[in-house]
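Support reply, case 0932

Customer input (verbatim):
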Amino acid sequence: MDIQLTNSATRRKERFEPLDAGNVRLYLCGPTVYDRAHLGNARPVLMFDVLVRLLRHVYGADHVTYVRNFTDVDDKINAAAFARKEAGATGSLEELVAERSNKTIGWYHADMDALGALPPDHAPRATEYIAPMVAMIEQLIASGHAYEAEGHVLFSVSSYAEYGAFSGRSVKDMIAGARVEVAPYKRDPMDFVLWKPSGDDLPGWDSPWGRGRPGWHIECSAMAYELLGSEFDIHGGGTDLKFPHHENEIAQSCCAGHGFAQVWLHNEMLQVEGKKMSKSLGNFFTVRDLLDQGISGEVIRFVMLSTHYRKPMDWTQEKAEAALETLTRWGLLLEEAVGDEVEADPRVIAALADDLNTPLAISVLHELAKTGEASLLSASMSFMGLRPVTFEATEIPRDTERLVEFWLERWRVARGEKNWSKADSIRVALGEAGISVDFALDGKKWDIPKTFDPSKLESLE
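Our regenerated output:
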């Protein structure tokens, strides 16, 4: 099967040809672990999750190696630890940094699991790969692409003629658009840090340049090299990482003698109700915030995959509600699925093979649901990592409205199937529970009184 992917490096859609079909290798830039993952952090994970599922289908589960890292060396993590210490937390700063990193990584795994994301084959922490980073920096100094200055080691941007080609920016544009740190020890304002000194109170490691810690960009280059080799197939992340992070990764890796990634994938950014997500606008939330509000991981995944990864994605309450309704309806249909297991619909696989066209794949799922092909719908949803939303009759969800709508949807399905006895039993149970439903309007108008008794619905099956 041909897989077409839009390569950010060439700016066109290309046929994917792995370097080695027996070991397809890909790397996704993971989070900096100082706080909970926000909704935007989840988008590249879901993009790569669909990609990995597709690659494993085409090349075999044992022939795909997926790496997603954790950045646990970063000034933001140090700042979070400083804040905790000032607030009275006990322990050294290094201990607080380690404690925060461990806790945040645990949160991240739990949140991504809730979204149905498969775990990567390797989830390296930057702190586990300090020695390879030091070795790569030494190599860059020896080849004239880096220099030491006042305890820092910096990459010399002027030594790499292709710098800026990946992001398509001139040096002038890069200086204007980036937070370029002006420092007297830099030969050029665009030179970026490979190693920086650490004070006694900060995390640090011994190196030829004194006790210090690595810069952000060298971390991913070293981890990718150690786990995937000098050359590998696919590298990706959010479009905000193109510059400076991915531009710098390419520069230092190539100057260290590595071919690095052949294909680059970048997802567009996320908005909330048509506006950029930001704390100042009050529309900033984490994946855990949504989960705690009762919005399931299945719903979040469905909404995210309903927009192509190369288009800006707008999270809205309306989309979440529509996704819940769809997944609940599909859940009812899948309860009727019988017979032998089947493969995913070829149209779903073909859509994903065409640059991960998840909206087109979801349109096929809608068609399968409409025609009542439950077994094929189940297999196709599973292929995309989508799960139906179901409620156990013996469990009362926190959201009463969802429970009522769940049974109303069952009532509609029963009527559509002319299963009058089942429809009547649902109608009677809703009435006994105190729910006021206008059945003449197909149950679209209803009310929950204060006397609502959810236990009356427990007998329904």
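We compared this against your earlier run and they match. Two observations from our side: Residues 93-114 form the longest helix (22 residues). DSSP finds 15 helices and 15 strands in the chain. Please reopen the case if you see a mismatch on your end.
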